[in-house]
Predict the structure.
Amino acid sequence: MSADEKRNEQVEEELNEAAQAEQTDAEPEAGEAGQEGSELDALKAKLQEYQDQALRSQAEMQNVRRRAEIDVEKAHKFALEKFVKELLPVADSLEKAVESTEGQEDASELVASIREGAEMTLSLFMSSLKKFNVEQLNPVGEPFDPQQHEAMSMVPAPDAEPNSVVAVVQKGYLLNGRVVRPAMVVVAKAEN
């Protein structure tokens, strides 16, 4: 039994006792009997009012508790957001390092080993981010979504659908489905 329910019962008992005490003290005169009846009605009305207030208070407490639980859940879910934002340039740099060695298959053994090391480091880094629900946005070919993409420019692209992403300038990232950094994209312009 909750504290509010106990208080409601106590108030009810006190009101009932007060009503009974007034009934036993009163003389059975007709004028006083009418007065006692009106007092009893007033006490019953007050009792109903107090019960309504108690129910409203309980509902409000449940709402506050529910909101607090949601806030705590969000705090746990998105606590890493600042940390992830700080790590994203590292992922970008590793990707650029791998991209810069592309097309140099005939280059020296040193360049090949550096490329392999950068690829392995990038792979390890991305898998670590994935463990904490960080997803990469690489929306090439997808329709432009202003919630997840930031348009850098629009270019005519006859082979692509209008308002679709043609190229990604910088990949975006999501943390538990929330955008940490939007993808910077080039969008196909509609032909006139």
Q: What stands out?
A: The CA atoms of residues 101 and 114 lie 9 Å apart. The first strand starts at residue 134 and ends at 137. Strands lie at 134-137, 149-156, 165-170, 172-175, 178-181, 183-189. The chain is about 60% helix and 15% strand.
